[in-house]
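seq/struct pair 1
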Amino acid sequence: MLCSKFISNLILSLIVIILIIYILLPIYWLFITSFKIPIEYWTKTPTLFPSKFTLEHYYEIFNKGFLLNIFNTIFVCITASSIAILVGLPASYSLSRLKIANLFKNGMLTWILISRIIPPVVIVIPLYTTFKVFGLTNNLLGLSIAYEVYVLPFAIWTLMGFFKTIPKEIEEAALVDGANRITILIKILVPTILPGIIAVLIMGILTIWNEFLFAYVFLSESSKLTLPVVIAGLVTSEYGEIWGQLAAAGLISSVPMLLFTVYLQKYLILGFTTREIGKM
């Protein structure tokens, strides 16, 4: 019995170790490639450690304005996610709490869901044409608004679930005391579902951070590009694949989201845990 248990634990440990190596190896390879001199990553026999560490690739990408591209991406992520919260809160509250005709309500919910599952490549050109009329192309604010196609449906559907976990008696008591719907939403319900709002904000930022298609179509000036477009440009540059700069850019773009997720994961878990407990 003990021998069988030991073998089972050993096999399980080996599987876990293999999975960890499988996950971490690409990250490690990205890390060491960003410090290698160019001749090393062109050799037919790749090395596990650079023979000579260099910061040349990091200097080169920052000389190209990479720091500005990081700020562009942060601005778009925060703006788009904030708009989704500001619009999604009243929309989800109305659909989950107010007395609305079922036909209209179901139609709205179906349309919101369909707009989220339509492939972005189908709507990007019509959206770009519309935004061009209003002068919102090649504009970070315009791109942030366009990203509502991604984050707003998710925000509405998710926040609706959180609103449904709150007993209606709380609102009824507030209405009896003379509070209106806006006051109830801002002063009572929003603080109650704050973990859910933070969870939606985190998911919105994570979704937009790596988005490529809309940023590639909507932006043209190099000073306004976001990270995915800049990194893709390093793959198809006039000098061929610049692997060192590509690895450095990929590593730098991954670190903020990694730190952001690690720091705020407790809010993400708390948000969805609160929602599930409320359903019980």
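seq/struct pair 2
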Amino acid sequence: MTRAATAFRRDERPFVSLSGRSEFSRLYREGLRSRVGSVVVLAASGVSGAARVGFVAGRRVGNAVERNRAKRRLREAMARIAPRDGMTFVVIAQPGVNGAAFSQLVCWLDDACRESCESVDSEENDE
């Protein structure tokens, strides 16, 4: 089975993957939430360089195969929308993310990221 010609390789993605529990925990505590469709995005600022993104799919999404599929689809969708530099995101898959058309998934993720970035910007301006 061959990979799609438009798929991004890991080193070509426009974001860096989050690693470590502490980074995820910080966003759960401090990040601003935005939900669109079956996607929840937590966003925070404060990093320099490329955007940092982590992906989460809980047991409500399905078994291990379905959770991994959801995270792969979300990774590819995030690569297509090219998240804003200097931001950190955690993308949480909800039930229904695997059943959605990929174009719909990209739209959901784009809208949720845009809403989160606007919220972060407005919060920073209030301070």
